[in-house]
Specification:
With about 100 residues, the chain is of the alpha+beta class. Helices cover about 35% and strands about 20% of the residues.
Length: about 100
């Protein structure tokens, strides 16, 4: 089971594992092992990776729970504009 989403983030950001390794100060072999899921980085390295990739540290992980969300729109001048999402996980539906 993979925990980190590094492969897809690196691809989306067009960053190579070698470039990331250089920027966070680890060997390319170490970074390769992290990206492939063979080893897990210490918290300080994880934070550095998130900073270099310009993502929230939580975005480095695959979600472990299904998140139920609802899109929020506002209506302005007859048009609906997406303004975000709200998590419905903590709400109970009462009948």
């Amino acid at each position: 089971m993979e925990i980190l989403r590094l492969k897809e983030i690196l691809k989306a950001k067009e960053v190579t594992g070698k470039d990331l390794a250089e920027k966070v100060g680890v060997s390319t072999v170490s970074m390769s092992n992290i990206v492939s899921g063979n080893s897990f980085p210490k918290p300080d390295l994880l934070r550095s990776i998130a900073e270099v990739l310009d993502v929230d540290i939580r975005e480095l992980f695959y979600p472990t729970k299904e998140t139920k969300t609802e899109v929020i729109y506002i209506e302005k001048e007859g048009k609906y504009i997406n303004v975000g999402e709200i998590s419905l996980n903590n709400f109970k539906h009462e009948s």
